[in-house]
Amino acid sequence: MERRPFIAGNWKMHLTLAEAVQLAQAVAPTCAACPDRDIMIAPSFTSLAAVCAAVKGSGLQVGAQNIAWDREGAYTGEISSPMLKDLGVSLAIIGHSERRHIFGEDNAMINRRLHGALDGDIRPILCIGETLADREAGKTFAVLDTQVREGLQAVNSAQMECVVLAYEPVWAIGTGKTASKEQAQEVHAFLRQLLAAMYEKTVAETVRILYGGSVKPDNIDDLMAQPDIDGALVGGAALKAESFDRIARFR
User: Fold this and answer.
1) How far apart are CA 25 and CA 38, in angstroms?
2) Stretch 148-155: mean pLDDT, rounded?
3) What's 161-208 look like in SS3?
4) How is domain 62-213 classified at the architecture level of CATH?
5) Which of 96, 115, 130, 188 is catalytic?
6) What is the pLDDT of residues 26-44, one digit of tens each?
7) Per-residue 3-state assignment (H helix, E strand, C coil) for 58-70
8) Cα(248)–Cα(49) distance, rounded to whole angstroms?
9) Annotated binding residue at 95?
10) Kindly report the CA angle at 59 between 228 and 49, in degrees rounded to 5?
11) Catalytic residue among 98, 105, 130, 168
């Protein structure tokens, strides 16, 4: 089954409001040149409203870097799905390794956030990935199995149509190290088999699985040539229009 490619840029804690709008406007024309793929950027919360307004009608999708599990309440510092929808945000990154390892979010919390997104009509991008210690100990697949099963707890087959997975080996994020195309494909194939076991083959064949971890213009083509890699979650290279444009135009 053919899956529509998806290139997403995670801007993390970078760019002022003016810088974010400028970069968004520079990236937006790429969508017209690449109508056969989805392209998304995820600015910081302070820039979401202005970026959504700046790229409206361009086809460039805007995502949030996190999302709350509830629609409203006494949750200082959190952002809910109605708030995001109100701005024009359509996706949310959930469970990024930095949220897991710096801010202590566990699989249960990540699952709550994922349901908050689904219940609020926001498409979740569920991030998973092993540490270097996990990989060296031969625990990669066991760690991913747990993250996927617990992260998708109580998510049904119909809801999975809205879910995107992003495999980001922690040891490759911001380090300059990238999993080889063979390593990445091996993990993506495992994840697709896992989804088939959890749901059914049609779900596994439909869900898009992105690779993230030092994705650059010079490695995107090899990564996207792999049969189970459907796109990329891009960090540092997404902060420059030229490099992100090249990644989005993978060949």
Assistant:
1) 16
2) 98
3) HHCEEEECCHHHCCCCCCCCHHHHHHHHHHHHHHHHHHCCHHHHHHCE
4) Alpha-Beta Barrel (3.20)
5) 96
6) 999 999 999 999 999 999 9
7) CCCEEEECCCCCC
8) 23
9) no
10) 110
11) 168
The stretches of the chain forming alpha helices (DSSP H) are 17-27, 29-33, 48-55, 81-87, 97-101, 107-119, 132-136, 140-151, 181-198, 201-206, 220-224, 241-248
- Residue 129 annotated as binding site: no
Domain ranges (residues) in the chain: 13-30+43-60, 62-213
What residue type is 239 in one-letter code?
L
Contact 40, 63 (CB under 8 A): yes
Instruction: Determine phi and psi for 102, rounding to 5 degrees.
Output: -95, -40
Long-range residue pairs from 221-224, CB within 8 A, at least 24 positions apart, any chain: 221/250, 221/251, 222/181, 223/181, 223/184, 224/5, 224/250
96 a catalytic residue: yes
Check if the beta carbon of residue 46 is closer than 8 Å to that of residue 83: no
235 annotated to bind ligand: yes
At residue 16, the 3 state secondary structure works out as coil
Q: Is the dihedral of CA 227, 154, 143, 129 positive or negative?
A: positive
C-alpha distances out from residue 138 to 127, 132, 134, Å? 20, 10, 6
11 is in an annotated binding site: yes
Confidence of residue 213 (pLDDT cuts 50, 70, 90): confident
- Helices 107-119, 140-151: crossing angle, 10 deg rounding: 40
- Confidence band for 177, pLDDT divided at 50, 70 and 90: confident
The amino acid present at 180, given as its one-letter code, is S
Q: Is 116 annotated as a binding residue?
A: no
Residue 180: partners with Cβ closer than 8 Å, 6 or more residues away: none
